[in-house]
Amino acid sequence: MLADPTFLALKAGLATLVALALDRLTGNPDHLSAAFVAVLCAAPTVLIGLRRAALQLLGSLVGGVLGTAVALAGVPSLVGVPVAVALAVWVMLSRAALAYPVAAFSVLTVGLIPRGTPTETLVVRLVAVASAALAGTVVNLVVSGFSYRNVFERRLRRAEAAVRARLACAAEGPTALQPGFQLLAALDEELAVALTELRARRSV
Questions:
Q1: Pick from 25, 57, 24: which is nearest to 38 by CA?
Q2: Are 36 and 25 contacting, i.e. CB atoms less than 8 angstroms apart?
């Protein structure tokens, strides 16, 4: 919401490049997972990127372990994969809701795209996600590190403009207030993360 599209697109492209390069260095064959997760880890600020990377690693581990367990138990994929997906989604929704899609995707990867034994497939998946998380984090640190003040000033200006626009619509009646309040709630959460990161950076 507060991210500059061009800035975030640059980060996503660089993160993909670094993830694929790490894949080549490690000999990991799961290029799709590495590239896709790297894009997800690219974020407007470093702290948001670290949180996304942690969620990707957690979801991949939970989903991968469940998918591997079902495969090792010899359950047919037509039954085992849906059951493991359901379990992975349930676990993540009760622990880290934002990570449930990647947990489900890990089950699908392990169950439907085997790379050797189930355990070997799990290792391939986790290496790919770890490479992607590292790639996204490095890009977030390097790119944002050179323009940190500009990043936060730009995000603050976007927040102010969005709030003014929504409040101006309040005169249209109650129906215009709901999206305005939803925006304020989203902005509050994003700015709280930004403030935490700014304080941490100043204390270093």
A1: 57
A2: no
Low pLDDT (below 50) residues in the chain = 204
CA–CA separation, 13 and 4 (whole Å):
14
pTM: 0.72
CA–CA separation, 62 vs 92, rounded Å?
A: 8
Task: Copy the structure tokens of residue 161.
Answer: 């403009």
SS3 label, residue 73? coil
* Placement of tokens 């959460």 in the chain: 189
Per-residue pLDDT of 92-130, as tens digits, reads: 998 888 899 999 999 999 999 988 999 999 999 999 999
H-run or E-run covering 54: helix 46-72
Close Cβ partners of 70 (under 8 Å, ≥ 6 residues apart): 80, 81, 83, 84, 107, 111
Contact of 138 with 18, CB cutoff 8 Å: yes
Say how many C-beta atoms besides its own lie within 10 A of residue 151's C-beta. Answer: 23
Which residues are within 8 A (CB) of 196 and not within 5 positions of it... i.e. 6 or more apart? 47
d(CA 204, CA 201): 5
Nearest C-alpha neighbor of 140 from the set 18, 36, 28: 18
Amino acid in position 12: A
Cα distance between residue 18 and residue 184, in whole Å: 35
